[in-house]
Fold this sequence. Notes:
Layout: H1 2-22, H2 37-63, H3 70-77, H4 81-109, H5 116-123, H6 126-153
Helix pairs in contact: 1-5, 2-6, 4-5, 4-6, 5-6
Amino acid sequence: MTTSLVIYGFLGLVSTAVAFACNRRLFAGALAGPTSRLEGLYYVVGISSLCLGWYFNVRYVHAYPHQASYVNYTKMLFSNWASDSAAQDYTIVNVVLLPLWTIVDGRRRGMRVPWIFFVMSLFTSLAFAMAMYLAFVERQIRYVREESAASKTA
């Protein structure tokens, strides 16, 4: 099952790279500007979440080498009443609300390929994908503000 971790890790990197590549205008050029404190905080929280999540995922795969799969993982989320409550919340947020939110809000804000954050969540973590989305939104807001100011002075 270590192969699956490598594949999911690779797909997580690819989906994250796609998000940055498709929105590269936010990160390069005169309008990009430096990273704000809030944006930086989102990156720190996202990367911390990613590391913690992968730590536990690696432990899960090593503890259940022959059963490790999305199906078994999901079944194990629902193992008692307390985890059932958290698992249903996590599942609804990740599978329903995150895609709706990022796609609708991202399009309204003019972000490119906003659906990639949902894809990213499938291979990284929900918190990482949300943190990346929020960091991109923070950067998009500043980018639009700078773009508007530049067009007024032109």
